[in-house]
Amino acid sequence: MTIFLVFILTISIVVGIHEFGHFQMARWCNVKVLKFSIGFGKPLFTFRLGKDQTEFVVSSIPLGGFVKLLDENNIETNERIKKIDLKRAFNRQSLIKRFLIVAAGPLINIILGVLIFCFIYMHGSLQIKPSISYLSISSEAYQQGLRVGDEIVSLDGYEIKSLEDLGISLKDHKTIFQDVLFKREGKFSHVKNFLWTDDIKVFPYGLPILIQSVEVGSIAEKIGLKVHDQMLMVDQIPIKDIPDLIASIQNHWLKSYDLTIKRENIIQYIHIDKELFEGKIEKKRIGVSLGYDEAIIKTHLVEVKRTFGESIKKSLIQTYVFFNLTLKTFKNLFLQKADLKDLGGPLAIAHMASSSFLEGIFPYIQFIGLISLNIGILNLLPIPLLDGGHLVYYLIEFVRGKPLSNKKMMISQRVGMLILGLLTAIALYNDACRYLLGS
Question: Which of 206, 194, 115 is nearest to 154 (CA)?
Answer without folding.
Answer: 194
